[in-house]
Write a structure and sequence with these properties.
Bound molecules: iron/sulfur cluster
Strand content: 15-25%
Oligomer: single chain
Length: 476
Amino acid sequence: MASPFSGVLQLTDLDDFIGPSQDCIKPMKVDKRSGSGVAKIHIEDDGSYFQVTQDGGTRKLEKAKISLDDCLACSGCVTSAETVLITQQSHEELRKVIDANKTAAPGQQKLVVVSVSPQSRASLAAQFGLNPTDTARKLTAFFKKIGVHYVFDTSFSRNFSLLESQREFVQRFRGQAGSQQALPVLASACPGWICYAEKTHGSFLIPYLSTVRSPQQVMGSLVKDFFAQQQHLTPDSIYHVTVMPCYDKKLEASRPDFFSQDYQTRDVDCVVTTGEVFKLLEEEGVSLSELEPAPLDSLCSSVSAQEPSSHRGGGSGGYLEHVFQHAARELFGIHVDEITYRPLRNKDFQEVTLEKEGQIVLHFAAAYGFRNIQNLVQKLKRGRCPYHYVEVMACPAGCLNGGGQLKAPNTPGKELLQRVETLYSMVRTEAPEDAPGIQELYRCWLQGEGSERAGRLLHTSYHAVEKASSSLGIRW
Ligand code: SF4
């Protein structure tokens, strides 16, 4: 397919050349020849770049290579399945570990664990015309067939993320008088948003960010700490893979905060996108629909999972809803059954309020997509942000629309997204505090709610990243 960027570009500021946004906006060096204010860059159909030299010849330019640390989370390449340049984590890495296991001496093998996100499951269900439960069982069968030992569901770890978010909000709301930056609490489950916050408004935004780990990273703690202990294994002898709806999750898994120095291992070793799972199925010549379903695995031996479960409140995890209902009950003694959203500028910026005696006592919002995020940040900077809590997600329409989800060439994006949303909402929901095994794990694994151990394993911290000096001129 011809690159949409085929042709000749005329550049007048040539210290750095910025590639097309679908690739990477990290700058590439282009020689600035004396006496010339203009250089010509020719782009071939295959996406190669050539600098047109003064004598009329061409010189091939090196394509920008990006490591996870360099990434600007520009949402160009990071959320685009076709052109992503991230190489450190891929389905090929998973394959390498599985292949190495086949020839490894006993005792040298890795225990391979895959944790699947409910958003990826819904996307695969739409692709194969299956219901979510069959998809979960057939995916389990597929992964086990290729050599994976356990397949878990990150809805389980999301129970902890939601409960910790509820607790954190109530604490910060009660303590707001003592801290100017206690509120609003800005949700932290989306690494695209976190990366943006750290790299563009670091020290200003960080105090507002929820410290709760995302479901992926809570799953990392569960697998490398709780499950490793159950299996009498060290964390480094488990290879933990997650299946996620976006590339940004790879950045999240690579954060130094989730790396164990003691064992030289990550909580999540490898993140593969929904699209990469589809590729893996194709490479193995397997159609998910034709596989015999397998029973679902459960992290807790005392809990047997017959079918997947989910949470209320939409495809991005339901943070707003869970925190809102809990806060209304805890702080004002009001039981809220149904949440009514009020759309603001667009359907990706909505708010919810709780009134008591004619006064707004809780004011929450959901802001999805960078356009709305920028708007929110402006409000905050001008001191005109009325919200107590904001569920912030980098993707328009949220996680079901993540850049790593499957596309269908013959189905318009909107129609496909609706189908994925319907499938996602078909899954039985439960309140996180009632989910089987959660209270037991708080007791036995975390030594109680609010313990030092719960703080260490379920929360994280953020770091302002100094702006790289470049002539990128990116306006966030
Ligand atoms: S909103 Fe998009 S970038 Fe953020 S976690 Fe969800 S899928 Fe990933």
